[in-house]
Amino acid sequence: MVEFQKANEMRVGSNGAAASTVIRWRPPTANVYKLNTDAALDVGRGIVGVGAIIRNHQGHVMGSTSQRLEATFSPKEAEAMAILRGIEFAVGSGLMPVVIESDSLGVVNLINLGAPNLMEIGLICKDVEIRICEGGVTFGL
Question: Boundaries of each RNase H type-1 domain copy (predicted)?
Fold first, then answer.
């Protein structure tokens, strides 16, 4: 039983490496919403699932969305699309300003650094950048 518990304490990050700490959800400041996004891939069937959930500073769920897309995205493209669709959902629902949290640090860095449009993920990142520049959207730490 002890082995089982220890094995299940280990967390795995989006890059497949074991994470050394458990990261817990932290609420945003008052009058700000937190947007958490994620993506899942079924490569064999060409299906991507993206989802988002928005909570207030008390942790109450204010809204959520999920979409099934027929696409052949890479994992990073899928995560970027989840962020984009999450922002679109937040704006459309009037749940602004919003702080985004994603488990894909690589995608967040590409967005923040301005991924070249020539990269497969570049156009999705550019759409996210545009939404951020329109105001009311930031990334959390």
Answer: 36-124
- Count the Cβ atoms, other than its own, within 10 Å of residue 89: 22
Contact 39, 14 (CB under 8 A): no
Domain locations in the chain as residue ranges: 25-139
Residues 109-129 have pLDDT tens digits of 888 887 676 677 888 988 999
CATH superfamily, with its number, for domain 25-139: Ribonuclease H-like superfamily/Ribonuclease H (3.30.420.10)
User: Structure pTM?
Assistant: 0.79
Nearest to 80, CA basis, from 18, 9, 132: 132
Tell me phi and psi for residue 15, to 5 degrees: -90, 5
Quote the DSSP letter at residue 27: -
Residues 6 or more apart in contact with residue 13 via CB below 8 angstroms:
19, 103
Task: Quote the CA–CA distance of 65 and 51 in Å, as a whole number.
Answer: 6
